[in-house]
Amino acid sequence: MATATAPARASGPGRPPDRGRRNRLDRALPYLLLLPAAVVLGLVSLYPIWAGAHASLTTYLYGRPIAGAGLQNYTDTWHDPVFWQAMWVTLKFVVLAVVIETVLGLALAMLVARDMRGARFIRLSILAPMTVAPVVVGVIWRLIYESQTGFVNPLFSSLGLGAPNVLSHQGSAFYGLVFVDVWEWTPLLFLVCLAGLQSMPQEPLEAAAVDGAKPVRLFFNHTLPLLLPVLAVGVVLRLIDAVGTFDQIFVLTGGGPGTATQLISIYAYNTAFNFTDYGHGAAMLIALLAFALLLVIVALTLMRGAARRVSR
Amino acid sequence: MTSRGGNSIQVSRRSMLKGAGLGVAAAASGPLMYQACKSDGLNKTGAYDIYVMDDNWVPEFAAGRIVQSLDKLGLKANPDILSKGLDQGYWPPKAGARLKAFANDTPELFALVIIDDCNLLYYDKRQFSSPPKTWDDIYSAMKAKAKPPKLYGWSARGVKGNPVVQTYLPLLNSYGGNFCNDDWSPGFAGPEGVGALERLMSFLPYMSPSTPEFDTDQETALLLQGKCMALTEYTGTAVTEIDNPADSKVVSQIDITNCPSQVKPGPAIGTFICGISSGTKNAEGAVKFLEWFTSSRIQLQFAQEGGSAAVTKSALTDPKAVAKYRWLPAIAQSVQSSTPKPRTPDEPRFEDILGTQLNIALVDALQQKRNYTQIAQKSLNTAKTQMAAVLQQHKNIYF
């Protein structure tokens, strides 16, 4: 390759004098075209991360930065029992919600991937919750769960189960929020799985079916391994998003009852903006970022392991 | 009064603006307004002349010089303004615990009260033979007459944070406890605080089982539907709802009086209050406007036209205004017998700590239906420990 391109790069008699310059321009052009997007990305994405990291190393008094804090904000965060409680709630919420969403999304995609009557309508219906803004989802479900005027209490009472008062108890409020998240975000996993299933090569599946593979075996030995790369992308996207869940919880419970639904995002928001402890709040959010990355690594490792086991 | 995350402020901006030809003081809902004002004041942009604030912003805004000293600007406060309401604008506070850096400073007026908001007792007069004077009176009445779920004895805000603290404070204060003692130590985990919480828990059998999720709208809905005997709330419920047929099924049936006493009266105060921004380019006009708006003449108009929580004694006791709006004398009485919350920028954090534990206590008490003393003691001790940890973490500004 080097020998093939070297003569073309050399200038010589009869060659237009600006050829070398044009080549340099050709090489630079992709970077120049990328530059505006990179600048915008830097402004809206990297700068806030840098500013957050900087804030986490700063001491504030009455809203003003007054001194460098070193790692004090991180030390305070590390020794804050409420932070660890919020971290535990976040972990429970993320794992439970994403696992249920993945299983449900996959099941629905398997169901709807086949050509059947009304499939298009069903697909569109399943996608609908995802199109609603999270804060609106929070308001809607607040009205549904509300003990005086919502319909969950009357529904349960009419079935003879007693009014659950979902938002009044720590356990039911937590699972109520998981349910809302599942309702809203299962469609994303459904969409990812459906795309994966529809672009999947059919020959291996048909061959296995001809060889007499039962549906369950077909799914675990053929469909799932082929789907795993696509599924991994969906799961990673959901993990990152779920770790930062804020709107619905802020509207629905504000983190209560007690601290039952206080995710790190809610606690960090309160610390930074309600308690005006910006440095401590920023340190929590940097920790949240690290936590999200850790979860993604764990999820990818688990899925790669599963893929290897299945392919064996 | 609301926390920094609370509701928007209902102020007659039209009448305010008419007064001085100034730009809008500030607009938008609680948390947005707080951040906007703070950012404006810190950077001295001069986008706003006056901030309409929640009174718990005053410590941070005054200590951080986000607002200017009204004394230094030459503002003359109307002597007709109720003293307890006026005190909310002083920094450092005239009474109670002070931050270390301001321990020896002479209090200066940094903000001027424009709405005297405080806890009132609302009760359905058909259920009480006379206005209840003590928490024990309330308990006796509900024990005799309440029939949940048709008629609850009591309704309360139980959501964690500011709402449940606003439910608890009138009890705590009246039982002789303190949110914060004069040396900043938490004053709610002793026998007074535990007794106050036990009294609230004794109401639970006569309250909605959904109380831990109740905020003002759910709490007051029960009263306005005629399904509850009594509750404590801020003045807005009286001014805008109880006699409005669109909101209430019990028009003219709800009476309003000062919060019940036990060893003393205990309403909490939470005024709306105005400060002049550090970056204003029209401080003189802003001062004139505040003097005009809090003048006895305008406050009387304020009370007579809408029954609002005026800040002057003459307006709240004016016979013509009182004949039309029966709650005005109760506002005056409550303000003057009120207890302020801790005067520190950390107050929202303290409120969150106490409010989280109170909410947990309510949930536990509703589930267990007994062991109230243990539940109360445990939750208040936890709150005390957490608050002490925050004080220790920020010891350089407290001790």
Question: What does this entry look like structurally?
Answer:
The complex is a heterodimer of chains A (312) and B (399). Chain A has helices spanning 2-9, 19-56, 72-78, 81-113, 119-127, 134-145, 152-158, 170-198, 203-210, 215-243, 247-252, 264-274, 278-311; strands at residues 58-61, 64-68. Chain A is an all-alpha fold and 312 residues long. In chain A, helix 3 (72-78) packs across helix 13 and helix 12 (264-274) packs antiparallel against helix 13 (278-311). Chain A is globular and about 75 Å long. Chain B is mainly alpha-helical and 399 residues long. In chain B, the strands form 3 sheets. A 3-stranded antiparallel sheet of chain B has the order 1-8-4. Chain B has a 3-stranded antiparallel sheet with strand order 6-5-7. Chain B has a two-stranded antiparallel sheet with strand order 2-3. Mean pLDDT of chain B is 91; it is low at 1-14. At the A-B interface, helix 12 of A face helix 2, helix 8 and helix 15 of B.
Can you tell me the CATH class of the largest domain in chain B? Answer: Alpha Beta
Low-confidence stretches of chain A: 1-11
Strand content of chain A: under 5%
User: What's the total number of strands of chain A?
Assistant: 2
CATH superfamily of the largest domain in chain B: Periplasmic binding protein-like II
Low-pLDDT residue intervals, each spanning 5 or more residues of chain B: 1-14
CATH topology of the largest domain in chain B: D-Maltodextrin-Binding Protein, domain 2
